[in-house]
Design brief:
It is built from eight helices and nine strands. The protein is of the alpha/beta class. The protein has a domain of 159 residues: P-loop containing nucleotide triphosphate hydrolases (Rossmann fold).
Length: 242
């Protein structure tokens, strides 16, 4: 099964990006490049700017200063990007009905919608629950359905904002398996998490943020084996960043 669209939004580049909310700086002189490959995982304490970075990368928040470019373009429409929030909203219809709605919104040809919907449900392990009302699914099942619904857009980049924050270990493992499957399809996953164990399990690259600033980034193995900054060493050890 292939649901990958052309790499029209990569690389995604932040160049000296600042984002303000009134007088408060949410992102501060952030320079970062996100390219194709294994998942990039954003870590950092509450208020670090992880959600703002994801929303800005999706095109939902403009930069107050600096530039955000998608494959070199500053005004790229977000048709090859999708985002799943921590608590996704389920439509008042069945699981498969939620996916049909997303496929229709993405202007998928009617002739292929049933097959695409079946493929997406199989990808996230919900084919047996296709006709169950989406709002009657468990929290973990709803999150997997949200992933399938996002993939109906045919994105090259999928942003996930702490998708397992409120889930039990079993549901968390299921989400992580879906993330690995999505990566194998060639979709770039950029995900925030508070769970360092999860970051170690699925990240190809790590981005550590604190107070809106980029503290350290690089391959996950190198980051966890030998962090370069004192803040990173402290965070990995469980210390508080103030």
């Amino acid at each position: 099964m292939s649901m990958r669209a052309p790499d029209s939004d990569l690389p995604l580049m932040f160049v000296d990006v600042g984002i303000l909310a009134g007088e408060v700086t949410i992102l501060d002189q952030l320079t970062l490049t996100l390219d194709a490959g294994p998942p990039t995982v954003l870590i950092g304490p509450n208020g670090a700017g992880k959600t703002t970075l994801l929303r800005a990368a999706m095109g939902l928040i403009p930069a107050s200063r600096g530039r955000i470019t998608w494959s070199g373009r500053e005004a790229a429409p977000p048709d090859k990007r999708a985002i799943v929030f921590q608590r996704p909203v389920m439509l008042r219809r069945s699981a498969v009905g939620n996916i049909f709605y997303a496929l229709a919104a993405a202007k998928a040809p009617r002739a292929v919608r049933q097959e695409r919907a079946n493929d997406l449900l199989a990808l996230v392990g919900l084919q047996e629950l296709a006709h169950r009302p989406a709002r009657r699914l468990s929290g973990g099942e709803q999150q997997r359905l949200a992933l399938a619904r996002a993939l109906a857009r045919g994105p090259t980049v999928l942003f996930l904002d702490e998708p397992t924050a409120s889930l039990d270990p079993y549901a968390t493992k299921a989400i992580e398996e879906v993330v690995r499957s999505i990566t194998r399809l060639g979709v770039k996953v950029v995900m925030s998490t508070h769970d360092l164990g999860q970051a170690k399990r699925i990240a190809g690259d790590i981005v550590l943020l604190h107070r809106g600033r980029l503290i350290e980034s690089g391959p996950a193995d190198a980051f966890f084996a030998g962090p370069r900054t004192e803040e990173a060493r402290k965070f990995i050890a469980g210390g508080l960043l103030v």
